[in-house]
Amino acid sequence: MKTTGQRIKRLRERKGWTQLELAAQLNINNSVLSRIESGHRPVDDELLVRLADLFGTTTDYLLGRAERISESRAAYRSDQSLFDDAFLERLYRVAFYDDDRELSAEEKKIMMESLIDAAASIKKIISRTARS
Question: 4-63 — its CATH code?
């Protein structure tokens, strides 16, 4: 069975990315990614979720609890109706336009990083409230 680090490396190589490229996308140091891939450093939960999202797989696959790269999730599929074309268009306009000016590639990158950070923070809040 492959380790988490080996699975991450395999997925990275399938995308044709170097360690430097993946580390930059994850906003982590390349040496951290290298140690994760070699099995010398564990992956924290938040990074594991970001990796699963980035590679379009599940955390179970990365952890070795599932053998298929992508597992279908019925609950997630049923929620897709929430994201109709009108909603996605509105989200795109709000996130990537300043009035009628489309953001530059660098501004879009900053926006995406901000949205990811915000989503992670909101998930933590929801998780804490659900336990209370």
Answer: 1.10.260.40
Report the 10 Å Cβ neighbour count for 3. Answer: 15
- DSSP assignment of 107-129 equals HHHHHHHHHHHHHHHHHHHHHHH
First to last CA, the chain: 38
CA of residue 49 relative to chain centroid, distance:
6
Domain boundaries, the chain: 4-63, 76-131
Residue 102 main-chain phi, psi, to 5 deg: -75, 140
pTM for the model:
0.53
Q: Mind listing the pLDDT tens digit for each residue in 86-99?
A: 777 788 888 888 87
The answer to whether 26 and 47 have CB atoms below 8 angstroms apart is yes
